[in-house]
Structures are given as C-alpha cells and as structure tokens.
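Figure S7 source data.
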Amino acid sequence: MERRKEPICQLIDALALAAEAHRHQRRKDADASPYINHPISLLHILSIDAGITEPSVLCAAALHDYLEDCCGQAGQPSVEEGRSILLARFGQDVLAYVDAVSDDKRLPKQERKRLQVEHAASAPFGARLVKLADKIANLRDIQASPPADWPLARRREYFDWAKQVVDRMRGTHASLEALFDATYAGRP
Ligand code: NDP
Ligand code: ZN
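Tokens for the predicted zinc ion complex:
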C-alpha cells in the first residue's frame, strides 16, 4: 500500500491496523476491556500528557503490541509478514520502534523480562518513549483495574520490574519519567 504523507493520516492508518489486528483480544482486567483501549492509552500519555507529536512515535505506540500479541496467531500474518506490513505501510522508523518494544515469544517469560531490562538503554529514542508510555499505562491499569487473579505480591513484582526497565532509560524524557515516578509512587 502507498505510504500516506499527512501525519494525521498515518496515525489513523496505524490505529485502523491495530483495531483490526486486536479485534478479538481483551485486556486482563476483570471487565476484559477491549484491547485497543491500551494502545489508545499510550497515545494519550505521549501526546496529551507529554506533548510528543512525532508521527513515527505515535504510529509505533498505536502498533506497539502488533508483532508480539497479534502476528503469529491463527488467522493473522506471521511475525515476518507483520514486519513487512509495518515497513511497507509505515516505514523504517516505525518498524524499528515496534521491533525494539517486542519480546521474542519463543523465549521463556523470565528470560523475556530479563532481556527487557538489559536492552532498554540501547533501544532507539523513539522506542524508549513508547516503552515509557507502555509501563506507565500498565502500572495505571494494575492500580485501577488489575487482572482479577493477581495477588498483591504479583502486582508489586510487576511494579518493581517496570521500574528496573525505566531506571535503565533515565535521561530519555523528563516528563515521561516524572509521570512514571508519580505512578510508581502509588505502588500497591
Ligand atoms: P504478565 O507478563 O503475565 O502480564 C503483564 C502484562 O499483561 C503487561 O505487561 C501487559 O502487557 C499485559 N496486561 C493486560 N492487561 C493488563 C492489565 N489490566 N493490567 C496490567 N497489565 C496488563 O505478568 P508478569 O509475568 O510480568 O507478572 C508480574 C510479576 O509477577 C513478574 O515479576 C513475575 O515474575 C511475577 N509472577 C508472580 C506470580 C505469582 O503468582 N506471584 C506468577 C507469575 C509471575 P502488554 O502491554 O504488552 O499487553
Ligand atoms: Zn502494551
């Protein structure tokens, strides 16, 4: 598909692809909220809270869980096909940012979590912005509407792991880091 030139059109296209790809998915909160609410939360944090309007960052935020949570699932493109779609439709920067925020689901969960901490500092700047917004959104969700089966210890462990990731990215964006710290201060 031809690449859109107008930034607002790129963002609408990114949201349309995310909405389509996540359409059968739900978040883990007790109400099983529509999955697309989560990428929209990241867009709100980046643009409204932090004043970030760079189109490639916003498109990557809209699509940040596309490769990890949609591609490779039944009826969806493979991860490699998904990467080709991102490149053709949104360009190299968006692909690089989404790649950098995607875990390799073939690895065991503890290894994936360790690698997020290890790779955080070396991720491209745009990817670090998306990562910061993702951690803020997830901490807010755990405070306001946590997965029903998560005991206190697991919620706390998630807060502390998210802080380890963010601590490796200090100096990336003062407002986002302050927002993360304010959210972390509400650790259950
Ligand atoms: P998961 O990776 O299973 O779940 C967290 C992820 O789920 C988030 O990163 C987010 O990912 C997504 N998500 C979907 N809905 C919500 C929601 N409502 N609120 C928050 N996140 C949501 O969790 P972890 O394995 O990371 O568990 C957290 C900690 O607990 C870890 O440190 C782990 O070691 C520990 N643990 C404890 C257990 C226990 O019973 N005590 C058992 C297993 C782990 P995204 O944005 O990418 O969709
Ligand atoms: Zn996410």
